[in-house]
Amino acid sequence: MGIIYKNGTYYGGGGGGAEITVDNELSSTSENPVQNKVIKVELDNKQDADDLMTPEDIDDVVTPLPGVANRLPRYSTEEQIVGYWIDGKPIYQKSITVSSLVTGENSISHNISNLERTIKCDGTVMRNGDNYSFYLPIVYMDNITAWSIVITGINQLSVNITVGSNFTGIYALSDLVLTLQYTKTTD
Fold first, then answer.
1. What value does the mean pLDDT take over residues 48-67?
2. Are 124 and 136 in contact (CB under 8 A)?
3. pTM greater than the 0.85 cutoff
4. What does the domain layout of the chain look like in residue ranges?
């Protein structure tokens, strides 16, 4: 005997006369097989790959969990909380920019109120003649005074940077960006 389909149920085919119910729609509760054409229609209704979100779209729809600092690095000249220090105090981050540096001592105002502890300070600076970029702090071993750029200290008002005597003329430094991470006395 062959297989007979009647009102959504198949009969026969196995010689034992067993019946198999085949669903004509998707269901979250049914354990029956589903018609192929039903699955095809559902797959065709799914989004095209062109309609999927891009990485740029994610910032528009993802909301950080309350109380959790955004873990992606974001550099800004505005003060922002980026984490928490070992004592539970917020870690703030702020970038400062300076158009040029001179040889010798440079005192750069950071305009951070209530600075308590500097956790990290680094940055980049460009060399004018060839747009070569240096990551700070940097110290050259061949002649520590002539070819060095060193962050020598950070106090309540400024960041101090010493620039070696060879950074003049076409080697003069410009376009400094320093990023500081710190805690504050007010927290």
1. 61
2. yes
3. no
4. 4-46, 80-184
